[in-house]
Specification:
This protein is of the alpha+beta class and 585 residues long. 33% of the residues lie in helices and 17% in strands. The protein starts with a helix and ends in a 5-residue tail after the last strand. The protein binds adenosine-5'-triphosphate. Keywords: Cell junction, Membrane, Repeat, SH3 domain.
């Protein structure tokens, strides 16, 4: 057979030929069937061709000229982008480099380069099983030096076996950094004390009483519980304080955060407790936060309780950690529920018949976010939201006056007849009632309202046409317009214009001789009651929509407030900003 092989015109791989000769020599040692099978395999043209290809690829791979300079170029690109984004507003070259490097073709080219440089094309073979005596148990001894830093691990009693096992390893904590302790490892001894039959509390006491080095004797888990850091970022829509949460398994392991904080979720494998760290605290140890499911459950529970029914008293309600009422989520101040008084006399551009309590019906927990990078020549609409009379229009007017070529507001639509001196398309776009009714019904207006029997509104199309013309669209709609405006198509940058404290509010408006927007003739000053209403309305807006705002801006001294607005607009043009991940495609 070998002679036949060598005689053929195929270029046989020398290693294969040698294997076949060796096989021939040992032909008598094994049973015929196995030898025949091996022979057939080694002599197949397909295997020979594969081996030849492999040899050639391996030869090319050894050529130093083709060695990659680095295998993490995509990572470097992101770091460079991050650096450049902070300097774009200072230097045009930076800006140009920033936009060039954002090109998705370039980024994918680097991904492909890195995959090849890291030899990501090799097949991932399963680990060869190591034969072990079934009764033999591997034990590892882990020594950690006790410091002020928590160990960053939690333990629990395994329900089936009653053994103490490692329940959770906090990302970036001491245990995680050691790389020696894993989720599922069974704890046998702590400092030579056998923990069999002990409770997690007993083990904690042993740990607390020990000094210096702590020695764990562990039986490793089958699966090392290796946790890969997820890349998910979320914006929190509620405040969380583990110190007052009765259900967190370990308060010290909790991570406190505030509504609006961007959190990096590093592990989501537990149904109730996620691990997270704050985005700007990258090197910090991860902490426990309630999962979306747990938080939703708490909010629902709280609402049900408010309505007089105890959700958890129903048979079959699952997690034991919710058998007693969980911590209350944020609630509106009772005084503010009817405080959002609307201007009674002036034209209104929104539908007052809608009950804004509806907005909080949605369960606000976490929203997945990603960085939205600025695109040259495409500006996100700037939307100024605030209590009636707080100064949204004043700020909008100033921004447009600063650069009318760049900043523009859409011309509103109306169904009222044109007055003398008005020009169609300048003050208003005049349309028939039926047409506007139908367009409102079709969701074509980002805001609309009725005043003295006529409709007024701003169409989504007019916002888009300003954006498409390469200008910055500036809007100052009623706060309910957030619902229609906040879409992936429009990608608005939402700014909450808030009133300052009452005495500053009064002083600044009095000094500027500001005219009340609640007065149809716009002739008198604001009353004390109107100032108080302004503050209550701002609280209400914050409660309803606070989690949607990109920026809060206090309109005390007008010059300062305007300066802040300009800075934010510049930042938006030059820096990436967190936005709903759905918008970043
Ligand atoms: N920071 C400020 N200091 C002094 N006066 C201000 C300030 N901001 C706004 N004003 C004045 O307050 C009055 C109301 O402002 P503006 O018309 O901008 O309110 P608005 O938020 O648009 O109200 P509305 O929604 O009722 O139209 C105006 O006379 C404006 O010049």
């Amino acid at each position: 057979m070998l002679e036949a092989v060598m005689a053929s015109d195929i270029n046989w791989d020398p290693a294969l030929s040698k294997l076949i000769s060796t096989l021939k020599e040992s032909e008598n040692l094994s049973n015929d069937q196995e030898i025949d099978f091996l022979k057939a395999l080694l002599e197949s043209k397909e295997l020979n061709a594969l081996v030849n290809v492999h040899t050639k690829v391996a030869k090319v791979g050894r050529d130093d000229r083709l060695a990659p300079v680095l295998s993490t170029s995509a990572q470097v690109l992101y770091e460079v982008l991050e650096q450049l984004s902070q300097h774009c507003h200072l230097n045009d070259d930076c800006k140009e480099a920033f936009h060039l490097l954002q090109d998705s073709h370039l980024q994918h080219l680097l991904f492909a380069h890195d995959a090849i440089a890291q030899k990501d094309f090799y097949p991932h073979l399963p680990e060869a099983p190591v034969e072990m005596d079934e009764d033999e148990e591997t034990i590892k001894i882990v020594q950690l030096v006790k410091s002020n830093e928590p160990l960053g691990a939690t333990i629990k009693t395994d329900e089936e076996s009653g053994k103490i096992i490692i329940a959770r390893i906090m990302h970036g904590g001491a245990a995680d950094r050691s790389g020696l302790i894993h989720v599922g490892d069974e704890v046998i001894e702590v400092n030579n004390i056998n923990v069999e039959g002990k409770t997690p509390g007993d083990v904690l006491t042993i740990l607390q009483n020990s000094e210096g080095t702590i020695t764990f004797k562990l039986v490793p888990a089958d699966n090392k519980g290796a946790q890969r850091e997820s890349k998910v970022r979320v914006r929190a829509h509620f405040d969380y304080n583990p110190d007052v949460d009765p259900y967190i398994p370990c308060k010290e392991a909790g991570l406190a955060f505030q509504r609006g904080d961007v959190l990096h979720i590093v592990a989501q494998d537990d149904a109730y407790w996620w691990q997270a760290r704050k985005e700007h605290e990258r090197s910090a140890r991860a902490g426990l936060i309630p999962s979306r499911a747990l938080q939703e459950r708490r909010i629902l529970h709280d609402r049900t309780q408010k309505n007089g029914t105890d959700l958890d008293s129903k048979p079959g309600s699952c997690a034991s950690l919710c058998t007693t009422p969980p911590g209350s989520p944020r609630l509106p101040a009772s005084s503010s529920t009817s405080s959002c008084r609307q201007p009674k006399t002036k034209k209104i551009m929104y539908d007052l018949t809608e009950n804004d309590d509806f907005d909080r019906e949605q369960i606000a927990t976490y929203e997945e976010v990603a960085k939205l990078y600025p695109r040259p020549g495409v500006f996100r609409p700037i939307v100024l939201i605030g209590a009636p009379g707080v100064g949204r229009n004043e700020l909008r007017r100033r921004l447009i006056a600063r650069d009318p070529e760049k900043f523009r507001s859409p011309v509103p639509y109306t169904t009222r007849p044109m007055r003398t001196g008005e020009v169609a398309g300048r003050e208003y776009i005049f349309v028939a009632r039926e047409k506007m009714d139908a367009d409102i019904e079709a969701g074509k207006f980002v805001e609309h309202g009725e005043y003295k029997g006529h409709l007024y509104g701003t169409s989504a199309e007019s916002v888009k046409s300003i954006v498409n013309a390469g200008c910055v669209c500036v809007l100052s709609p009623h706060y309910q317009a957030i619902k229609t405006l906040r879409t992936a198509q429009l990608k608005p940058f939402l700014i909450h214009v808030k009133p300052p404290e009452l005495d500053i509010l009064k002083a600044t408006r009095t000094e500027a001789r500001a005219k009340s927007t609640f007065d149809e003739a716009n002739a008198r000053s604001f009353t004390d009651e109107e100032f108080e209403d302004m503050i209550k309305s701002a609280e209400r807006i914050d409660f309803l929509y606070g989690h949607f705002f990109d920026v809060e801006l206090v309109n005390g001294e007008l010059v300062n407030a305007f300066e802040q607005l300009v800075q934010n607009v510049q930042r938006l043009e030059n820096e990436p900003v967190w936005a709903p991940s759905m918008w970043v495609q």
